[in-house]
Amino acid sequence: MKKNKLIYWTTTTLIALFEGVMPALTSQTELAKEGIRHLGYPEYFGNALVVFKILGVLVLVIPQVPKRLKEWAYAGFTFNFLFAAISHGAVDGMNGQTFFPLVVLGILLLSYRSYHQLER
């Protein structure tokens, strides 16, 4: 039980940092805006993405949130990481930026698995 709790909070904290804190602090920088434009998305898409990422992170880290909402947050982040990898692959070809979202997806899957082990 202790091991699962440690894995859950470690992986969930990493997701919170990558997908909540960093986007909240950097989303309005010129580099972030250029990254969204480079992939062919309009600026408002980046803004909406940041809002949903922050909400998703809050859902994952607040223990009192209903399980169904947590499932939706996990699903949303899964789609986000998959489509980020596809977007980078389509625009830039296969490189580190293409595979980094898949690495973070692996961390998310560990969080998801440990969350369900704790719920049992």
Topology:
Layout: H1 2-26, H2 30-38, H3 43-61, H4 67-92, H5 96-119
Helix pairs in contact: 1-3, 1-5, 3-4, 4-5
Question: Could you characterize the architecture of this molecule?
Answer:
This protein has 120 residues and is mainly alpha-helical. Helix content is 86%, strand content 0%. It is built from 5 helices and no strands. The longest helix has 26 residues. The radius of gyration is 15 Å and the shape is globular.
Radius of gyration: 15 Å
Number of helices: 5
**General shape:** globular
- SS class: mainly alpha
Helix content: over 70%
Summarize the structure.
With 120 residues, this protein is mainly alpha-helical. It has helices at 2-26, 30-38, 43-61, 67-92, 96-119. The mean pLDDT is 94.
Features:
single chain; mainly alpha; 5 helices; 86% helix
